[in-house]
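Preliminary data (for renewal application), pyridoxal-5'-phosphate complex.
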Amino acid sequence: VVAPEPTFVMYRLIATYAGLAYHGVPLRPDFALDLPAMLRSIEQHRPALVFLAWPNNPTGNLFDESAVRTLIAASPGLVVVDEAYQPFSGRTLVAALGEYPNLVILRTLSKMGLAGLRLGLLVGAPGWLAELDKLRLPYNINSLSQASAVFALRYGTVLTAQVQAICAERERLYRALAGLPALTVYPSQANFLLFRAPTAQGPRLFEALRRSGILIKNLDHAGPALRDCLRVTVGTPQENDAFLAALTRALSAPGDTAEPGRTG
Ligand SMILES: *Cc1c(COP(=O)(O)O)cnc(C)c1O
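Predicted structure:
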């Protein structure tokens, strides 16, 4: 299995549980694909599977489409393009399925507000679907999830409106974070924003936010490329305001170290 790194950690975890060799290829400093390095890795390892999260998690960016197409064309095995965040990017490679017999696409309802359903789908050529069908357990998706999904999709306009509201808030939150000179915020086509705190400040900011009752994702320990990085999911306007206020407070109080219990 070959995938860029950092990316969705489950690719590596599940490959490991399945006893497969996993090769991560570092992204460039701006989190773009390193196309020559990916091509070298594919050439060297001849992977049965290439995983590309499009947009990528936890970085939020959408890899250049022509680079993705180059990788699909160069791959000897299956390329899985994981479009978990497609509702927030508005971009899809579904139209390219006919061009590449080794492309399959994953979608999920998880990021559209139905995370508890654990329902997703895979789109690809009938030949591949028939092979994958052989590997499934004989039990189908449970009927309550199926009924819930049919019900939710009947009210698709509600989900679409929610996605639009999240995208608008994402842009507002992005501008607010970009306006804080201490931080580097990365452009996102997903429902979250990744930002980098000043050197050695990431964990302190995370703790200060947590003590303000705001829990975001600390990625400081997720590898050198994400040192001091935090990821915040776009919430309601009120939640985003509370986050920005707490973050601004934490940034202006650098002496307020994260000693649990010190502040009450
Ligand atoms: C959240 C996420 C998933 C999980 O999807 P489920 O349908 O909830 O299992 C898959 N891929 C990426 C990139 C994700 O961020």
